[in-house]
TrEMBL record:
UniProt keyword Zinc, yes or no: no
Residue span, JmjC domain: 274-412
A cellular-component GO term for this protein: nucleus
Subcellular location: Nucleus
Entry cofactors: Fe(2+)
Keyword Glycosyltransferase: no
Any one of the GO BP annotations: methylation
MF term (GO), any: methyltransferase activity
Name of the protein described by the UniProt record: Lysine-specific demethylase 8
Coiled-coil regions, chain positions: none
Taxonomy of the source species: Eukaryota, Metazoa, Ecdysozoa, Arthropoda, Hexapoda
Length: 412
């Protein structure tokens, strides 16, 4: 596909009813700017004032989105943000078509606008998703995003000491987590789901295309390299040095996966597969996610990506839902503790962190947290092709031993 065809495709996706709804509820200034943009895009007229106008709408609506708590922000600025982001994609493509020297920069600006619209705005999901896919294929068609030949594979085997599971051999109350090969739904239900006991399931995800594709950095770069994703920077979210930044997947891979920065960068707990349907095709929701505690018949599953170098660390915490944590690339060392042992783990008292333990299970300060000695630790190394069932409220602590890509499925 060429750029003019992509522009035509995207213009066809605009839904007039939505645009009018969005314009109607905006402030008069924004309404005027949106109208100007609509005209310019319709007549293929791109100019500096039009670019200024689209950036102004994006800035104004973003500011409005940041007044007060996210949950109390009205719908209008979120929708305007998404709509203006979509217009910006088209405007950037028009610029790319006219300005060959700056084509690469214009295409990158276009894809960034689509991703920010998807992640920070509301509505226009279908249009923005399609826009991002189109621009990604334009970029990979025109520019080589392949890494150097010696840097094409994610896989480095962890060394023997890294693989040593028996970090807790001296502890009498340490239990290795058992493995079960591809159990039937019924067996999984009776032995683990109903009784809420953890287990590693093997042989269930070997057929996923991700199992072969995601080891290949070139595949990830070609499929999603220019896409903007949120990256956690720093040792762990409980530490002061922790922060979050937006980066292209390509920059993240170069800086944190291939070059091995001192600081750890982690693409953690991100709904990557809603954002990038091309990667969603590489995985399959496990049938076990249809078992439910509730009366609702449709299974509503939250899928998150966890992609990072060796030594990413997710501190000891618990979540309210059932979880199947699937290991696609690399190995993770995981510790679990039962909800019955919560008091031995000293949960933080402040509300925001009350699902997170104060105690560090690898270096416990026994004087400060004496009851930790009574906690029973369940441990494993989760290897490629395995998935760990973490029942609701079970505490988990996760460290990657090498470059790792996991997918979690949370459900009720
Ligand atoms: O893999 C990780 O780093 C953490 C995974 C996790 O906390 C989860 O799936 O709930």
């Amino acid at each position: 596909m060429d750029i003019p065809t992509a522009i035509r495709e995207l213009k066809k996706l605009q839904e007039n009813s939505m645009i009018l709804e969005c314009i109607k509820s905006a402030s008069p200034d924004v309404e005027y700017l949106l109208d100007t943009l609509r005209e310019a895009v319709f007549w293929n007229k791109v100019s500096n004032p039009i670019e200024t106008a689209v950036n102004a709408v994006i800035d104004i609506s973003w500011e409005e989105c940041n007044i007060g708590h996210w949950s109390s922000v009205p719908e209008t600025p979120k929708t305007v943000y998404a709509y203006a982001s979509f217009q910006k994609v088209i405007i950037c493509l028009m610029k790319a078509a006219n300005d060959v020297d700056n084509r690469s920069a214009c295409l990158n600006e276009a894809i960034k606008a689509a991703d920010l619209g998807l992640m920070l705005g509301k509505g226009y999901q279908r249009q923005l998703t399609q826009a991002a896919s189109l621009v990604t294929s334009l970029i990979s068609q025109e520019y080589n995003v392949t890494p150097a030949p010696n840097e094409t594979s994610c896989s480095r085997e962890p060394n023997e000491s890294e693989m040593n599971e028996n970090v807790f051999t001296e502890k009498s109350n340490a239990v290795p987590i058992g493995r079960l090969r591809c159990p039937s739904l019924e067996e999984f239900n009776t032995k683990h789901f109903s009784s809420r006991t953890p287990v590693i399931l093997t042989g269930c995800i070997n057929h996923w295309p991700a199992m072969t594709r995601w080891n290949d950095i070139s595949y990830l770069l070609n499929t999603a390299g220019p896409r903007t994703v949120p990256i956690e920077i720093g040792s762990s979210y409980t530490q002061k040095d922790w922060g979050m930044e937006l980066s292209s997947l390509q920059d993240f891979i170069n800086k944190y996966i291939l070059q091995g920065q001192k600081k750890v960068g982690y693409l953690a707990q991100h709904q990557l597969f809603d954002q990038i349907p091309e990667l969603r095709k590489d995985i399959v929701i496990p049938d076990y996610c249809c078992l439910t505690d509730t009366d609702e018949s449709d299974c509503n599953v939250n899928i998150n990506a966890w992609f990072g170098p060796a030594n990413t660390l997710t501190p000891l915490h618990h979540d309210p839902k059932h979880n199947l944590l699937c290991q696609v690339v690399g190995t993770k060392r995981i510790l679990l503790f039962s909800p019955n042992d919560s008091e031995f783990l000293y949960p933080h008292e402040e509300t925001l962190l009350n699902n997170t333990a104060q105690v560090d299970p690898y270096h416990p300060d026994i004087e400060k947290f004496p009851k930790f000695e009574q906690a029973v630790v369940y441990y494993c190394n989760l290897r490629p092709g395995e998935m760990l069932y973490i029942p609701p409220k079970w505490w988990h602590h996760v460290v990657s031993l090498n470059v790792s890509f996991s997918v979690s499925f949370w459900w009720d």
